[in-house]
Amino acid sequence: MTVEILFDASEIEQLSRAIADLPGSIKAKAMASAMRRMRDMARTRIVKRSAERTDLPTRKVAALTKAFFNAGGNTIDVIEKSGWISLYDLGATQNARGVWVRARGSYRSAFIAKMKSGHRGVMKRVGKERLPMRELFGPNPAHDVTNNPDEFLKVLSELVEQHLAPRVLHEIDRLLPR
After folding, report:
1. Better pLDDT: 106 or 67
2. pLDDT band of 82, cuts 50, 70, 90
3. 40, 114, 121, 125: which has the highest count of C-beta atoms within 10 A?
4. pTM for this model (two decimals)
5. How many CB atoms lie within 10 A of CB 39?
């Protein structure tokens, strides 16, 4: 997976000459600050896209997504870790025909059960007897990112193309004495 970023060469030449004359400490502080801002913007965009694609509330996806910035290597890691989200956690309600979950629909012959451990979940019988039964789950946002990397790489490449250079310039301007 490769992300291609295009810049106008004349802008880069002017920018590189101007930045080359700056002290190293200002360049390092400006880049670190810009990368922290890019980290937050990347996390926000990934959470939003992931929530749209999985039909989950943004707050649920945001709780599963972490973003890290490695100042030494000028790298950003956005990590989305999640298991399959329980239908019960999505607001399942029991009715006469089964279970209904907002934005997911109806699950016939399913029921809400509470285990001895205190865990609640939407269950469905697997066999003809009362047991075994299995828990039903909703989407997994991290699974969506893994299965559709191009979708999320496109979001990140747009972010870098549109915001990284202006952000670095903004941070340099902020750090320079007036």
Report:
1. 106
2. confident
3. 121
4. 0.72
5. 18
Taking the C-alpha atoms of residue 169 and residue 127, their distance in angstroms, rounded to an integer, is 64
Closest CA to 44 of 124, 134, 176, 156: 156
Residue 47 burial (10 A CB sphere; 0-12, 13-18, 19+): buried
The answer to whether residue 105 scores a pLDDT higher than 70 is: yes
Query: What is the per-residue pLDDT for 58?
Result: 92
Counting Cβ atoms within 10 Å, is residue 18 exposed (0-12), middle (13-18) or buried (19+)?
exposed
Q: Is the pLDDT of residue 94 over 80?
A: yes
Residue type, 23: P
Mean pLDDT of 10-26: 76
Which has the closest alpha carbon to 63: 142, 145, 168?
Answer: 142
Asked whether 55 and 104 are in contact (CB, 8 A), the reply is: yes
